[in-house]
Amino acid sequence: MKKYFFIAAFFFANVTFAQHQTPGVKLVQYVFNEFTPGTVKMKSGETSQQLLNYNIITNEMVFENNGSYAAIADPKNVDTVYIASIKFIPLNNKFYEVLVKGNTPLLYESTASVSEPGASIGYGGTSTTTASSSYQSLLRDGGAYSLKLPDGFKVIAKHQFLILKGGKLEKAGSEKQLSKVFPDKKEMINNLSKKYHTDFSKPEDVARLVKQIEQ
User: Fold this and answer.
1) Which of 155, 111, 104 is nearest to 131 (CA)?
2) 121-to-129, 151, 152, 185 alpha-carbon distances in Å
3) 82 assigned to some structural domain
4) Residues 55, 94: one domain?
5) 18-52: buried (b, 16+ CB within 10 Å) or exposed (e) per residue?
6) What CA–CA distance (Å, rounded) separates 109 from 164?
7) Is 103 helix (H, G, I), strand (E, B) or coil?
8) Which of 50, 81, 145, 157 has the fewest CB atoms lying closer than 10 Å?
């Protein structure tokens, strides 16, 4: 009973439903392809172990409890989330993966837009509903949280590298953007990027570059 109330104290089921994962189904709307053991640490110091995953459509940390799924209600009350040794922190009601720690941490934002086939417009043509209406449609029936999206919906994943500096998020997905964040290290960034052949589409490459900059 205590465990139930402890969980309820800082989780709220925006959408709760029970379902079973179908073997082989890729969870395209989540960061991980299955709900994975993780730890939620609150700013109050309390912790909870849950099966967790991050929903890139709703930008919510979702947990599984006895076959039901729900989202963390107040990210601002969360200090840190760890899933499979990966650290996430909440900012602006989203969660960001921490790629590099330090005074100016490198963060990785995973999000997505959705689209669905539209209704017929005559003459054999079809239209595509807007991302906004597709998103609202998924939210109305809880489809955004499902382990398998309703037929016809497509997820367009998007990722972004960011540096948290002075309480602000600065883009860090290119040499030019990094040079704006670290203007006194522009030459170093250019040299290191060439030395390591940095691919700014790969988290491991960008993380290595930022670690070198921060040394």
Assistant:
1) 155
2) 12, 20, 17, 55
3) yes
4) yes
5) eeeeeeeeebbbbbeeebbebebeeeeeeebebeb
6) 12
7) coil
8) 157
CA–CA gap between residue 193 and residue 67 (Å, rounded): 46
Tens-binned pLDDT, residue by residue, of the chain (215 aa):
323 333 433 444 444 333 434 444 568 889 999 999 999 999 999 999 999 999 998 899 999 877 788 888 889 999 999 999 899 999 999 999 999 998 899 999 999 988 776 544 445 544 444 455 655 666 655 666 667 777 777 888 999 999 999 999 999 999 999 999 999 999 999 999 999 999 999 999 999 999 999 88
**Would the pTM count as exceeding 0.70?**
yes
Give domain status of residue 168, yes or no: no
Structural domains of the chain, count: 3
The tokens describing 182, both together, are: 């670290």
